[in-house]
Amino acid sequence: MSNGAFRYGPWAGGPDPLAFPFAATDALDEMSRQVLEGRTAREALDSLLRRGLNGRRGLDDLRRAVDRRRREVRSRGRLDGTLREVRRLLDTAVGQERAALFPDPSDDARMREAELDALPSDPARAVRELANYDWRSAQARETYDQIADLLRREVLDSQFRGMKEALAGATQADMARVGEMVRALNELLAKDARGEDTDEAFREFMREFGEFFPEQPNDLEELIDTLARRSAAANRLLAGLSPKQRQELAELMAAAIDDMGLADDLAQLGDALRAARPNLDWGMRRPTGFGDPRDGEAGLGLGDATSALEELAELDSLAASLSQDYPGASLDDVDPDSIAAALGRSAVDDLRQLQQIERELERAGFITRRSGRLELTPRAVRRIGQTALARIFRQISSGARGDHAQQDAGAAGELVGTARPWEFGDTQPIDVVRTVRNAVLRSASPSLRPRRLPRSGGSPGPRGAVSLKVEDFAVAETERRTSAAVCLLVDLSYSMALRGTWGIAKSTALALHTLVTTKFPQDKIHLIGFSDYARELRPVELAGLDSEMVQGTNLQHALLIAGRLLSRYPESEPVVMVVTDGEPTAHLLRDGTPAFSWPPMPETLELTLAEVDRLTRRGVGINVFMLDTEPRLVRFVEEMARRNGGRVLSPDPNALGQYVVRDYLRSRGGRRTVR
Q1: SS3 at position 626
Q2: How much is the CA Rg of the chain, to the nearest whole Å?
Q3: Among 26, 230, 270, 406, which residue carries the largest CB count within 10 Å?
Q4: Cβ–Cβ under 8 Å, residues 589 and 595
C-alpha cells in the first residue's frame, strides 16, 4: 500500500486468504469420535494431530514426507566420491605420462616408466610420491595439479559450505585470505569460550569475512551452530567409510591441509566447535543408506557428502521432533525453518495449523492442563455427551419411544393449557404470549392495566418497544413427572478393552448422563466405575479415562456405593443399571482393600449378592446389561434377577447405548403426577 492506494498481485502460496478461520469445535468434534471409542483426551488429541484437520497434513503425513526426503538424500551417491575422483585423476595423469614416454627409446624414459610402475596402490601415498616427479607430459602435470586443487577445495568445503565453488581457480592471495578468516574465527571462538562479550567482535568478523558464510548468521550462536553441524557431518563421513578408505582420505586431507598451512588452525577450530556443541553426533555412529562402494553409483565429493550428511542429520532431528514420542514433547519443538528447508512453505502452514489446534482448544475452554496432564473441560464433555446421545437417537427409529428429537421434550412433561407467574427455580417452558401481554399491559395506560399491579412500576420504553421485567414472565403449566435417581455402574476392568467394549460403555455412560442432565434435570444421575475397587466418576474424569489394566470385577463395592448415593434421594425413584462383561471376581475386605480371585471365591459371590438383597429391600430395581454370554456370568446375573426382580439384557455391544437409554426411559415411564 502506498499513498492510500492498494496494489494487488497473484497469490504466491501460504495460507489461503479466503479460507474459513480455524474452529476449535471442528477439532473437538474430531476428538469426540476418538474419546467415544475409548481413548483418553491425550490419545484423541494425538490422533487428531497425526491425521490433520480441514484438509491440512498431519504429523504422519509430514513424517512420511521427511522420510521420502531422507531417501532422496541417501540416493545422491556414495560417500567415497573424493577418493574415486582422486584415483581417476591419478590414473589419467599416469596414463598421459606413459603416452608421452612410450615413443622415447632412451633409458631415462624406461626409468620413468619403472617409477610409475612402482607407485603404491594407496592413492594418498601415490600422490605424495609424485609430488617431486618431473613430469615429461605438460598435460599430465596439469591433471596432477588438479588433484591438489580438488583436495584443497573439498577439505575447506567440508568445513565451510560453498567453498568448493568459491575457490575454483583460487590464487595464492585467495588462499591467504582463507587462512586469515580461519585464524580470526578461532580468536572469536576463544573469546566466547572465555565468557567475553563478543557481539561487536562478531559484527566486525562478519563485515570482514561475511562472504565466506552464505547462511548469513544473525549472531555468534547461530554461526557456531552452522559450523558445528557441518564439522560433525564431516566426522560422520569418515565414520561411514571402510577403514582403508578412511585412512586413505584422511591422509589426502592431511596433505592438502599441510599444503595450505592450515593444519594447526583447522585442528583448533575443530576442537573449539566440538567443545561448544558436545551434544552433536561427532561420528560415533556410521551413517547408513548410502551407495555400496562396490556398486556403480556416482560418488559424492567430500564437500557434497558432508552436505548430504549434514542435511540427513537435520532431517533425522526433524523426524524425531515430529514423532512427538519423547517425554515432554510439544509441537513447539518443531523448527519451522527446518520444515521449510526440507518440505517447503506449505508444510510450515500445515505445522502452524497443528500448533494452533491445541492452543485454540485451550483458548475456547475445551481442554485444560492439570498437574501437567491434558484434561477435557466440562464444556467439552457436554459436547461429547451430546454427540454420543445424538448417535444413539439416530439409531433408534423415529416412531419408537425415546425419540427426543423434539425441542420441548424433557422435564416439563406435556402442556396442560394453563399458565402461572414465573417463580425462581421453575423449569417449565416460558409462555411467551402471556409474558409479552403482561409487559404490554404494564406499560399501557392505567385504564388498560390489569387489576393486579406489578410490585414495581417502570416507565414505558420507546414507542413500539416492549420492556420486560421479571414480574412479566409467565410459565406454561405441564404434567409433572416424578424424579428418578439413577446409578449407572460401568465395568472398567481390562477385559472390557480386550473385548472391544470399553469405548461403547464409555460412550453409553456419557450419552445417558447428557440425556438425564439436559432433558430431565429433575432427575439425578451418578456414574460409578468398578474394577478391583469402585469409585464415583465425574463425567470429565470418565471422558478422559482409559480401561484399567488391573484384575478384578468388584461389583460388590459398586453396589455398596450406589446404595449410599441413592439414600440421598428418598423421594426419587431409584434406578440401578449395571454394564459388565464378567462375573464378580473381587470384593472389599474389612480393612477396605480389595481381594481378587479367579475363579471367584464363594465369599465374593455371597457378599455381592448381599448388596443386591440390601438394595432389593429398599425397593431398588437392578437391571443388568451383559456384554458377554460366558456361562458363569449368565448364572450369576440370573440369580441377581431372581432375587431383585430386575431385568437382564444381553445386547449386541454396538447396540448397548440404545438398550440403556430405552431402559432409562422405560423405567421412568408411567410415574406421572399432574400438578
Answers
A1: strand
A2: 40
A3: 230
A4: yes
Taking the complete model, does pTM exceed 0.70, yes or no?
no
Q: What pLDDT does 58 receive?
A: 82
Look up cell 494431530; give the residue.
Answer: 49
Q: Average pLDDT in the 519-527 region? A: 87
Above 90 in pLDDT, residue 674? no
Q: Which H or E run contains 376?
A: strand 373-376
pLDDT digits (tens, 9 = 90+) for 179-222: 888 888 889 889 888 888 888 988 998 888 888 887 788 888 88
CA distances from 327 to 150, 196, 321, 330, 549 (A): 46, 35, 11, 9, 22
| φ and ψ at residue 496, rounded to 5 degrees | -65, -40
CA 246 to chain CA centroid, nearest Å: 41
- SS3 call for 269: helix
What are the φ and ψ backbone dihedral angles of 590, each rounded to 5 degrees?
-65, -30
Amino acid at 38: G
CA distance 578 to 489: 5
Residue 398, SS3 per DSSP: coil
Tally Cβ neighbours within 10 Å of residue 5: 6
**What span, in angstroms and rounded, lies between the C-alpha atoms of 504 and 500?**
8
Residue type, 327: P
Nearest to 580 by CA among 485, 495, 641: 495
Instruction: Supply the DSSP string of 570-619, one letter for each residue.
Output: TTSEEEEEEEESS---EEE-TTS-EEE-SSPPHHHHHHHHHHHHHHHHTT
Q: Give the three-class secondary structure for 462.
A: coil
pLDDT digits (tens, 9 = 90+) for 323-361: 777 766 677 778 888 888 788 888 888 888 887 887 878
Alpha-carbon distance 263 to 270, whole Å? 11
Q: Report CA-CA distances (Å) from 337 to 64, 279, 347, 355, 582.
A: 18, 21, 10, 15, 54
d(CA 434, CA 421): 10
DSSP string across 314-353? HHHHHHHHHH--STT--GGGS-HHHHHHHH-HHHHHHHHH
Strand-pair category, 373-376 with 367-370? antiparallel
The model's confidence at residue 45, banded by pLDDT at 50, 70 and 90, is confident
Q: pLDDT of 495-518, one tens digit each?
A: 887 887 888 888 888 888 888 888
- The pLDDT value recorded for residue 603 is 92
SS3 187: helix
- Cell numbers standing for residue 358: 491445541
> Which neighbouring-strand residues pair with 576?
487, 622
**Cell 447405548 belongs to which residue?**
657
3-state secondary structure 39-52: CCHHHHHHHHHHHC
Please tell me the predicted confidence (pLDDT) of residue 403.
38
Question: Which residue has 515430529 as its cell numbers?
Answer: 322
